[in-house]
Amino acid sequence: MIVYILCFILFLVGLYGLITRRNLIKIVISLSIMEFSIFILLVLIGYIDGGIAPIITGLESNPTYVDPLPQAMVLTAIVIGLATTAMLMAIAIRLYRKYRTFDIREIKNLKG
Amino acid sequence: MNSLIPLFIIIPLATAFIIPIIGKITNYFAKIIVPVVLLILCFFSINLLISGNQESYVIGNWQPINDIPIGINLVLDGFSNLILCVISLIGFLVSFYSYSYIRKYSSENNFYALFCLMIAGMNGVVLSGDLFNLFVFLEISVLASYALVAFGVGKHELEASFKYQVLGNIASFLILFSIALLYWQTKTLNIADISGLLKIGDNSALLTFTQIILITGFGLKAAIIPFHAWLPDAHSSAPSPVSAMLSGVLIKAIGVYVLIRLFFSMFIFTHEIALLITILGTLSMIIGSLLAINQNDIKRLLAYSSISQIGYIILGIGIGMMVLSSGGEKSIAILAIGGSLFHLVNHSVFKGLLFLGAGAIEYRTNTRDMNQLGGLAENMPITSTTSLGASMSISGIPPFNGFFSKLIIIIAAIQAEFYLLAFLAVIISIITLAYFLKFQKSVFYGKNQNYKNIKEVPFTMSFSMIILVILCLGLSILAIPSIREIVLDQAVNSLINIDEYINLVIK
C-alpha cells in the first residue's frame, strides 16, 4: 500500500511544480515527473507479491509470475513520453530564441 | 484474412514516411501524392459505408482463445465508418487546398508528412478496438498536430503550441491513468471484452471514478467548456488548412468519437453520468457562443464557435443517454443520437469551409482583424459566396444542412420533455446567427479603399471551397428517411445495440 501512496505523492510533486514554476524548462520537467508517476502505477498494477519474471524455464515448481502485459505497455508509453518531451523541449527552445527568456510571465500574447 | 481495413492506417503512415525521402528530389511529389491517396481512401470508405460492411480484423492473426481475445482488434462498424468518411473527405479537400496556400512556408514536405501522420493517427483511433492501442494512435495524431500548430514558428504559433502541449499532455496522462484503472479492474484491454465483464460485475465507486477521469481526459481533447482554454489559441494560430483539419476533424475523431464509443460500447452508463454529459454539453454550447460574440480576430471567432457547436453534439448525445438510462422510449434516443451524429458530419463540413475561407482572406490581405477588413465581396466573389453559405449553414438557415441537424436535436429534446434544453438550443442558434452576420458584414461588405485591387484566390483553393459549399447544401438529403437509413441509422444502431459490437469482435 505504501508504494501506491508514494506513487501518488510523486504525481502531486509534478502537479505542484507544474502550477507554481514560472520557467518553461521546469514546467517540462514537472510534466515528466507526473508522467513517470503514472508509469510506476501501471507497473505496480501488474506486480504480484513474490512473483518472478514471466519466463517459463521449467526449473521451479508452482511458480508465480508477474503480469507481463503492463510492462510491455509501460515500455511503449515511455517511448511516447520521450517523443512528447522532445517536442515540448523543441518548442521551449524556439520560444527562448524569440523572447530571450524562459519566464512564462513575459510570454503572454495570447489570452485563452 | 483478406480484410482491407488495415489499409486505412498503413497507407497514410507509409505515405508520411516516403514523403521526406522522395521529397528530396522534387517538391511536387508530396503535393500530388497526398490528395491522391486521401481521395482513394475517401472513395474506399464511402464504398464501405454504402455496402454496410461490418468487420473485425485481428492484427497478426492472434485469434481469440476460448472466446477471450488476446490480439489487437481493428473494428469497423457503422459509426466508425461514418467518421472514417469524414476524415478522408475533409483531409482530401484540405490537402488539395494546401497546394497553393502552403507555398509561403519554407518546408512543404514536412507539412505534408505531418499531415499524413495526423490522418494515420486519427484513422487508427477510429478503428482501434483495444484501449491501449487507441492511446498510442491518439498520441501519434496529437504529436503531429502539436508540430503543425507551431508550423509558422512565429511568436504566437510557438506560444499556442506550448500551451496546447501542456494541456494535451495532462489529458494524455489522465487517459493513461484511466486505462490503468480499467486494466486493474478487468485484467483486459479489449473494449468488447471489458464491456462483457462490466455487465456481470456491479457498479462500484472505482468504476464511476474511472468514468469521471475518462470524461476529463477526452473532454480536454474535445475542448468541452471547462477544459477549453487551449483551443482558441491553438486553432487560431495554426496555418488555416491545419485549423480546418483540427477544428473540423481532430477534436471529433479523438475527443467526441472516443467518448461516445467508450460510453455506449464499453460502460453501462448510469443516469448521473448521462446528466453530467448533458450539463457539460449545454455549458459548452452557451459559453462558447457568448465568448465568440466579442472576438475581432476571424479565426478566434471561428474557434469559439467550434466549442459552441461541439456543445450541440454533446447535448444531443447526452439527451439520448438520459432517455436510455431512465428507460424512456428508444425511438427518442435514436432520434437524438442520430441528430447529433448528423450535426457532427455537418460541423466538419461547414467549419472546415469557414476556416478555409478565413485562410483565403488571410492569403490575400495578410490580416485577420475584422476591424481592418471590409468590402472583399466585390473582388473575391467565390470566397465571399462560399463563406456566406457556410455561415448560413452553421446558424441554421433552412435549405442548408445545419438547419436539419439542429432541428432534429431540438425535436428530440422536446419529445424527451427537456423543454429548457430545447429553448436554449434555439436561443444559441440565434446568437450564432448574430455573430456570423457580424463576421459577414465586417469582412465582405461595406467599403474599404485598402483592398480595391485584390484578386480572387488560385484555383486549387477555390475548388475545395466550392466542393464544400455544395456539400453544405447536399448533405441536407441525409434528413430524407430512405437515405438516412443507409448512413446515419446504421451508425446509431451500432451504438444502441451493444451486443452487435461485442459479437463483431468475439465471434
What oligomerization state is this entry in?
heterodimer
Beta-strand percentage of chain A?
Answer: under 5%
Q: What is the N-to-C succession of helices and strands of chain B?
A: HHEEHHHHHHHHHHHHHHHHH
Number of domains of chain B: 1
Major beta sheet summary of chain A: none
- What is the CATH C level class of chain A, in words? Mainly Alpha
The assigned CATH architecture of chain A is Orthogonal Bundle
Structural class of chain A: mainly alpha
How large is the count of helical segments of chain B?
A: 19
Provide structural commentary.
The complex is a heterodimer of chains A (112) and B (507). Chain A has a single domain (2-51, 63-99), classed as Helix Hairpins. Chain A is mainly alpha-helical. In chain A, 66% of the residues lie in helices and 0% in strands. Chain B has one domain (7-505). Helices cover 75% and strands 2% of the residues of chain B. Chain B has helices at 7-22, 28-51, 78-101, 108-127, 131-149, 155-186, 191-200, 205-222, 230-237, 240-266, 271-293, 298-325, 330-365, 381-394, 401-415, 419-444, 459-474, 481-496, 498-505, and strands at residues 55-58, 73-76. Chain B has a two-stranded antiparallel ribbon. In chain B, helix 10 runs parallel beside helix 12. The longest helix of chain B has 36 residues, at 330-365. The mean pLDDT of chain B is 89. Chain A binds chain B through residues 18, 24, 27, 31, 34-35, 38, 41-42, 45, 67, 69-70, 73, 76-77, 80, 83-84, 87-88, 91-92, 94-95, 98-99, 107-110, 112, and chain B through 132, 135-136, 139, 143, 146-147, 150, 153-156, 158-163, 165-166, 169-170, 172-173, 176-177, 180, 183-184, 187, 189, 229, 232-233, 237.
